[in-house]
Amino acid sequence: MNNRRIPKYIQLKNELLSWFESGKLQRGKQIPSENEIAEQFGMSRQTVRQTFGELEKEGWLERIQGKGTFARIPERREGELAKTIGIITTYISDYIFPHIVRGAEAELRSRGYRLLLSSTDNNKEKEMESLQLMASQPISGLIIEPTKSAEGNPNLAYFLELQEKGIPYLMINEKYQELECPCLKVKDESGSYKAVQYLLEQGHTRIAGFFKRDDLQGVNRLKGFLAAHKAAGVSVSAKSVVTYTTEQKNDLPYRQALQMLAEGEERPTAFVCYNDELAVLLMEAIAASGLRVPEDVSVIGFDDSSLASASGTKLTTLTHPKTEMGQAAAKQLIAMIEQGQPAQDIIYEPELIVRNSVARRNED
């Protein structure tokens, strides 16, 4: 249990459930105390108590006053698979992903399913490992966020194996284009189009855009950025668009922003950012250049994450459904599993949330 990206109570829950599946814990057998588990795994008693509480709700544990906690194990029909749903995302405990996971987990738990989590760190090899891990478990279905979706799908064989085994799956945020599976996603192109449109209405004509190019979300957000300029008859300078990869996200956009901001009167007056995480980083670049948000440079993010309101300057941004998406994905997948219902794509229209990181500008 060394994956620090997974919340500790979920790590412990998955470990204890593996004890049931391996036979290490059998029906009626007393399990170690909260103190013993906490010491064994180096976790707080509060974390252990939270895990025990969830396993008790799901029917795996029974507490008997004055005696201890005992393995109960929910009854299953002979040959029935464990009711387990796997979720593979690029990240788990960072940015908006905890909200997506919590939304899915709440829905799954209410329907008697347990959750198995895996993170790829947006790395194709780790995605392969995650798919192998899931395929080795008695899972009923999968919710998957594709890894670097704009760079193809070298792990196609594992998805075909899921189909051969009859394991239903759907994708969130984007999908690999060659796969026929349901997808729940934000209308990314529309979001960045709205961002540029709003800035143009506020008098900005020198707008720089920063977009990640190794996932389709970034590709589509760039499309919307360019489309909005074209619709308004405003040309886009080659040096006002920065694209970057996952590995470059903490460095290249920041350096490029500093260069743009050093151009004096020709500098951009607004930044449209791939997401809120990048917007916060570029606001630091603006400050480092001796400029202010929004008086000198306006900034718009994407995803309406907790970062959007974490600093003194509240970020204008586009919405992402997060928790709602997680819940809807879980509901759709359960319907696919239990009723064999073909799930439908769900496309969420992002809305612009106007805060104080954008100022009106009177261009010369």
Describe this entry's structure for a reader.
- With 364 residues, the protein is α/β, with parallel strands linked by helices.
- The protein has eleven helices and 14 strands.
- Strand 8 (207-212), helix 8 and strand 9 form a beta-alpha-beta unit.
- The strands form four sheets. The protein has a six-stranded parallel beta sheet, sandwiched between helices.
- It starts with 7 loop residues before the first helix and ends in an 11-residue tail after the last strand.
- The longest helix has 17 residues, at 216-232.
Describe the SSE topology.
Layout: H1 8-22, H2 34-41, H3 45-57, E1 61-64, E2 68-71, E3 84-89, H4 97-110, E4 114-119, H5 124-135, E5 141-144, H6 156-164, E6 169-172, E7 183-186, H7 188-201, E8 207-212, H8 216-232, E9 241-244, H9 252-261, E10 270-273, H10 276-288, E11 298-300, E12 317-318, H11 323-338, E13 346-348, E14 352-353
Parallel strand pairs: 3-4, 3-5, 5-6, 6-7, 7-13, 8-9, 8-10, 10-11
Antiparallel strand pairs: 1-2, 12-14
Helix pairs in contact: 1-3, 2-3, 4-11, 7-8, 9-10
Round the mean pLDDT to the nearest integer and report it.
90
Low-confidence stretches: 1-5, 76-81
Class inferred from helices and paired strands? alpha/beta
Question: End-to-end span in angstroms?
Answer: 60 Å
What Rg do the Cα atoms give? 24 Å
- The percent of residues in helical segments reads 25-40%
Largest sheet: 6 strands, parallel
**Largest beta sheet: what is the strand line-up?**
4-3-5-6-7-13
Contiguous helical run count: 11
SSE pattern, N- to C-terminal:
HHHEEEHEHEHEEHEHEHEHEEHEE
**Total number of β-strand segments?**
14
Shape: elongated
Oligomeric nature of the chains: single chain
The proportion of residues in beta strands is 15-25%
